[in-house]
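User: My collaborator sent over this chain with a note saying "see what the structure looks like." That's all I know about it. Can you take a look?
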Amino acid sequence: MERQRPKDSTLYLNFDLIMFPTFTSSAIEKISPVENGQVTITFTGGRDYTYGVSDVERFVTEMTSTITEGKSVGQFINRALRSDLLTLVQA
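Assistant: Without extra context I'll predict from the sequence alone. Here is the result:
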């Protein structure tokens, strides 16, 4: 029997892959699933940046809350960068 994905805004876990609910943002086009402690964020205009996530559980919890509560995803990412929750991975 195949497992069905819930239709609500819950966070989905798939081994080391963590996906976020759908969101709308004027600053951010998309956020990749967190995989192996890293996330790639596509900003408006198509600029992709990969970040290390210092505390995956905290990032996922706060990001999911931000989305489900309809708060600004761009502001959350900005705060996460300033607090070193996210750090740029050098190419």
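A starting point for your reply to your collaborator: Residues 8-15 have pLDDT under 50 and may be disordered.
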